[in-house]
Amino acid sequence: MNGIVAYMKRDFLKWGRGRVAVVSSLVMPAAWLVFVGLALPVQFTGNYLDFIVPGILVMTMLTAGLSGGALLMFDKILGFLNKFLALPAPRSSILIGKILFITGRGLVQATIILAIALLIGASLLDPVQYGITYLVLFLFGVLISGFATTIALYLEDHDSYAAFNTMISMPLFFTSSALMPYSVMPGWLAMIARLNPLSYAIDAVREVTAGGFPAGAILLLLVLDAAFLAICLRVFRKVTI
Questions:
Q1: 3-state SS string for 111-166
Q2: What's the CA gap between 37 and 51, in Å, rounded?
Q3: More confident residue, 149 or 235
Q4: Is residue 47 over pLDDT 70?
Q5: How far, in Å, CA of 13 to CA of 6, rounded?
Q6: How far apart are CA 57 and CA 60, in angstroms?
Q7: pTM, to two decimals
């Protein structure tokens, strides 16, 4: 446990020193909130900002998770990973610490985006609803972080990972239920959106804001988290030994 905390602390300190990166990571989701949530005319809901906020929160976690895979890539390229492996802490603590840092960073960013949403007119929820929302975001963040870290372990250079990140981030977002409900989508897009893991998290947050409890989505995310963590740890052992 001490090893996990140490690796998380190291990454948080490093992240805190890069102020430009901290601010730039918030520009895109904030722009979506303002220029789409407030300006886009829609007819399927009375308050489009409330509809789009869950999608923007999940997009923030997606962006943080996918960009977090590059952290392990840089550690591998710069030689830090080999030095970490020489330490007495269990090797799994390196990976778990990295995944928890990436997820925690995403939650910090999502909190700032949520604050902006409230300032521009999103509805205020009760503390229990926010607690469940953060649980869903955390589970989704672990899923994406585990996925991104696994891909980073397989790829050999940062350019390849950047290309992979660019290739899947926006398609995942635009084929989810972030911007519109299934009922107004074309049939083919609705079918893809229902299979998209982003939609699981987005629909779960929307269910929370409507006063429900997304037990099925939370259980599914837990199963996916466990599966991806097991795969990631297995790949990590093969790559580093």
A1: HHHHHHHHHCCCCCCCHHHHHHHHHHHHHHHHHHHHHHHHHHHHCCCHHHHHHHHH
A2: 8
A3: 149
A4: yes
A5: 11
A6: 5
A7: 0.86
Closest to 230 in 3D by CA, of 113, 142, 111: 142
> What would the pLDDT profile of 203-219 be if each residue is shown by its tens digit?
999 999 888 999 988 99
Residue 178: phi, psi to the nearest 5?
A: -65, -40
**Total length of the chain:** 241
* pLDDT tens-digit readout, 94-132: 778 888 888 988 898 899 889 888 888 888 888 999 999
**Percent helix, strand and coil across the chain, each to the nearest 5:** 80, 0, 20
Contacts 24+ apart (CB under 8 A), 71-78: 71/11, 71/98, 71/101, 71/102, 72/98, 72/149, 72/152, 72/153, 73/152, 73/155, 73/157, 73/158, 73/161, 74/158, 76/152, 76/153, 77/157, 77/158
- Between CA 115 and CA 70, with CA 139 as vertex, the angle to 5 degrees is 85
Q: What's phi and psi for 167, nearest 5 deg?
A: -65, -35
